[in-house]
Design brief:
Number of strands: 2
Structural class: mainly alpha
Largest sheet: 2 strands, antiparallel
Helix content: 40-55%
Shape: globular
Radius of gyration: 21 Å
Number of domains: 1
């Protein structure tokens, strides 16, 4: 029996749809973990923008699990995902081509894999470097109470209220979220996106909360042994964020 026009041309239509999808920047359907994306005009940013070197207490967490960072864009996403045994797990399944969110969530995955001592928190900082800092003797609830009402931004409720059910006694979790937003900022800038400005706003907001935590620790935990480490990391993290957005 002769096939109708729809059946006859269906394979050609599907092939054309596949080629079209492949040609869209940042979107790939064929056998690759990281989709390609053309860089905006000019030279692309490095994985981490130029800034002061990490403090001396930073350490090498070991070689990437997936070998050297893949030459794909954005470089910050390649750097993070090569540290994960299961990169797809950290992709937003509701929007799998959202590379900014993938960078943010992948940063959490890279942090989870870092060695950490009881009572401390480890953070992956890109370029094969990480830090471990001991928690001050305070809670996220105390940090939340120290934030004046007029300085409580969009993400205050999520991270300083709701997340306390899991992280209240690990206040340096706020540093990890801040770092994830900074890495998301790098991804947005490297991709040359006009949207996703909220990533940068959230990074700036979380910096305020981390600085409030540092000030609070100085008052309620005057013998906090890692006070200098925490202060140095906050200044370094803030400097590299400014290098990306200014």
């Amino acid at each position: 029996m002769e096939r109708g026009p729809v059946v006859r041309y269906l394979p050609l239509f599907l092939f054309g749809a596949l080629i079209l999808a492949e040609s869209r920047p940042g979107r790939s359907l064929v056998g690759t973990v990281l989709p390609s994306h053309p860089f905006p005009r000019g030279r692309p940013l490095p994985v981490s923008p130029p800034c002061e070197p990490l403090p001396a207490f930073a350490f090498d967490p070991g070689p990437p699990i997936l070998g050297p960072p893949m030459r794909s864009s954005p470089p910050v996403l390649a750097d993070v995902l090569c540290r994960l045994p299961d990169p797809e797990y950290w992709r937003d399944q509701t929007d799998p081509f959202d590379l900014v969110t993938w960078t943010h969530e992948g940063t959490h995955g890279a942090c989870v894999r870092l060695p950490r001592r009881p009572g401390s928190h480890s953070i992956y900082c890109l370029d094969g470097r990480a830090v471990t800092i001991r928690h001050p003797r305070l809670t996220i609830g105390q940090v939340a109470a120290a934030i004046p009402r007029e300085e409580r931004g969009q993400i205050y409720q999520l991270y300083l209220v709701e997340q306390r059910r899991d992280w209240d006694r690990e206040p340096l979790y706020l540093l990890e979220e801040w770092t994830a937003y900074i890495h998301g900022t790098f991804a947005r800038r490297q991709l040359g996106l006009g949207e996703r400005q909220e990533t940068e706003r959230h990074a700036a907001e979380m910096e305020r909360y981390c600085r409030a935590m540092l000030a609070l620790a100085a008052r309620v935990d005057p013998d906090y042994p890692d006070a200098a480490k925490l202060a140095a990391f906050i200044e370094w993290n803030a400097a590299r964020f400014r290098s990306a957005v200014e």
